[in-house]
């Protein structure tokens, strides 16, 4: 028997050797689990070489299959168990690997190790998702997008599990199951998929005025981002950061896309459901494969503890935001997503986020929605991933070694050595041992908040104002954005069968946001709103601001035309030199000019050469592109003009407010399509140089907003 090694001096001896990860650490960890079959024999899971993978073992060539056939049984048995429950919300997602690198400002606010050193890159895995639809639903539906980031820090995993909108539908976690039951496909027929345009959703939200602000966000074009790279992200709740001196500050987290914000428009989003249901995930995947990383800045709004009550809203209320005009967003780091997963199931499906995963220097607030989430995520993974060992799944493992006395349970992989699976122990040297809190490499210590209260099931009076920030959002939108919101309410309510639900929205909810909004939506439904807003309880506060520029999608624009995709329409007889010249100019600026032809067959050029098209007209339709150029060449233009699909291509692009240019004879096609230059966003000239400056300018603006009213008349 060994000497008793349990002494205080031993316990104070060196803890873990310090963990120094870099942005490759997670990939290195995953490497041990990657499996590449190249050059290997086909074998069973028990390692036996398989001689025939086509035929089951039978009693005679035409006889029954034998139970003895372990090769068949193993294969079929594994296949039968391939599926796991999909996430109850956020089932459809796509993810990417990358890294986070802090700016100098970060360490001032938090002692968390990942903020300490501006040269260090912490690996991250980020999953974007829709909320309502099932795993096989469409990408571009009107919905909130999840924006979940797992930071694999030296001190453990930190999960910032946010959304692309800064507020939420409800104030208390107690209502989450009700909200989700209401928004999900209806229970009797499982309709509709990926949409909120149905009775149970509008029934619930019209009875829950606290949802008014968030519903307005989801009726805006924010609900269908053009690309994940153009999407803002928000932590939603107020969190706490703790600095090296132990001082806590309240913070709101923001992800600001370096490519600016940009969304689809509704008709385009709907058409994409059919044309490319995987649009968002395909674009992210393709860009990363091309080396075009996605980039965001992490920012924080900081509220000193003494200022907790300095606002006209309660900072613990998740249906409210803090306007950036009141508290500016301080950038504290940059995130880059530059590597696609190797396997969707192993990584994107099995990743398990939990807002309760924090590291020293980051802590929670008492937001009652956040508090409920701290229970729900761990709980949901137990079912979804089959038990409490899901942290051993490679994508979920922290990059630093971890030891504790948790043992056994289904699918345990770790082979724990030693006899003592308890603490304190004197048998295994007292290990693993606790780490006292410290400014650096300390153990986690919950923020020492004083709480002196009665147990009570109640909602704070300070959560009582449901409309003033909805009004703030409405007044912060551009005219076009407001029109789109009116159209969205009108469409959604048209799908609601019960008239009293429509009436409740138009007569009770909308007038409290804006009378004009109520009147316009009411007009489209033949429902008269009241002539003034019904009196509502707004005892707590009214937003001190009339509008906040940051709430408009148009506020944050990309400074260049990188990543933009331009369709160049070509057919036999096209001016190949023009096409090449345009492609070159676009490429120089990081944009792409893709040739789109009637078929995939090589296209002959005016110059006697040929070019291989990138896609067919209906293979990469205009809804997948940012702009369209019809190349010159009299025969090419005549062919495209004579085709329904050719005309449709430019008409649809016109309807979706995209820049359109015609080179040389292309004017014939534009005329036939009923689109004539000069008009803002329509360019026409004989050479690429003749259109390029204006075209580039229009492309930079993403869409030609002045065309919005006129575009509605386009039948495409
Ligand atoms: Fe979630 N949420 N949520 N949520 N949530 C889940 O966890 C839940 C909320 C968010 O890509 C579930 O693993 C409750 C707000 C994202 O894997 C579940 C409440 C925000 C994801 C769950 C909320 C989110 C989830 C389903 C209210 C933005 C996808 C599967 C109290 C700040 C993460 C899972 C991924 C997923 C519960 C509200 C974001 C059931 C109880 C607010 C991005 O645990």
UniProtKB/TrEMBL annotation:
Basic and acidic residues bias (residue ranges): 9-43
EC number from the UniProt entry: 1.11.1.6
CDD domains: GATase1_catalase (cd03132)
Catalytic EC class: oxidoreductase
Catalase core domain: residues covered: 43-431
GO biological process: hydrogen peroxide catabolic process; response to oxidative stress
SUPFAM superfamilies attached to this UniProt entry: Class I glutamine amidotransferase-like, Heme-dependent catalase-like
Molecular function via GO: catalase activity; heme binding; metal ion binding
Cofactor: heme
GO cellular component: a single term: cytosol
Gene3D superfamilies named among the record's database cross-references: 1.20.1370.20, 3.40.50.880, Catalase core domain
Keywords assigned by UniProt, alphabetized: Heme, Hydrogen peroxide, Iron, Metal-binding, Oxidoreductase, Peroxidase
Amino acids binding heme: 87, 127, 176, 373, 377, 384
Keyword Cell inner membrane: no
Role played: Decomposes hydrogen peroxide into water and oxygen; serves to protect cells from the toxic effects of hydrogen peroxide.
Family: Belongs to the catalase family. HPII subfamily.
PANTHER family, sorted: CATALASE (PTHR42821), CATALASE-B (PTHR42821:SF1)
Name the UniProt record assigns to this protein: Catalase
Gene name per UniProt: katE
